[in-house]
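Intended use. Records like the one below are meant for learning the mapping from a protein sequence to its folded structure. Do not use them to infer anything beyond what is encoded.
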Amino acid sequence: MNENLFETQYDVTKKSKLKKFYEVNKILIFSVILILIIAIASVSFYSETKEKKKILLSDNYLAAKVYLENGDRNKVKNILKTIIFANDSTYSTLSLFLILNENLIVDQGELSNLFDHVLENNKFEKEVKNLIIFKKALFQSNFVSELELLDAVKPLINTETVWKPHALLLLGDYFASKKEYLKAKEFYVQILSLKNLHKELYNQARSQLIFITND
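Structure written out for the chain above:
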């Protein structure tokens, strides 16, 4: 009997404490619940919006390729530029490369600015970013100065990346085209000293070395 009375009193006391805690903190409790609801709704909305944006960019990119097949190059250029400025790491990059490959923009300054925009406004995996840097340097090698080209490839030749031998080969070919053979040889030799070098790159560097030695 006493045990049941004690348990009843304990339950009443416990409920009273809980009720008192609720009364004192109910504003805080409701605020936390509201924040959680808003946070979940925001994440859901963001994910849905991001997915819709991705689908729209994909559709626009495919539409651009269709217009390209039909010869409407100006419309293609405008669509691809719009995609680039949407700042999607996948479709902005694909659009830039398509512009470059199809020579849709011939203005060197404009193309350089598009490269800079893509690199500055998107997040990439290391090697994808290095590929874009290499593509930019390859494009600019036709018109920039020696110092500008060296500065452009610096992130590639000063780190371990699959694009390092490509950058060294670009520099070697750049100086060889200017008949600055001592400088060209320096970069070709660096390529041959790299470990796990792809056979094709090795052969290209070796062939160039033989060519400039016999020239």
